[in-house]
Please model this.
Amino acid sequence: MSGFHVEDGAYERFARQVDPLGDDVRDAAEKHVGPHVTLAGDGFSAMGHESGFAGAYSARMSALRERLHGVGGGWRQVGDASRRTQANYAAVEDEHSGAVRRFS
Model:
């Protein structure tokens, strides 16, 4: 017999393991990058605001935070793809089982 077999529930277990990773990345973005998106007071001295450096720094930190949120969302998409694969695999298995029964 050719083909492959996937253990029952393997795709769902994988998805459950991957899901928290996306949340962890998004949480890390807020915890470690979020506080640096805005600069309070004279974060880079009064000169930092006048020279544009503080604004550039803030914009860069904001972009980095958004990118990390995107990475976290990407992990969620991996879990969702695994769930869809489970459903597709189950449908194909049912179809093949039905064909074998019809030919038997």
Remarks:
- Residues 10-103 form one domain.
- DSSP finds three helices and no strands in the chain.
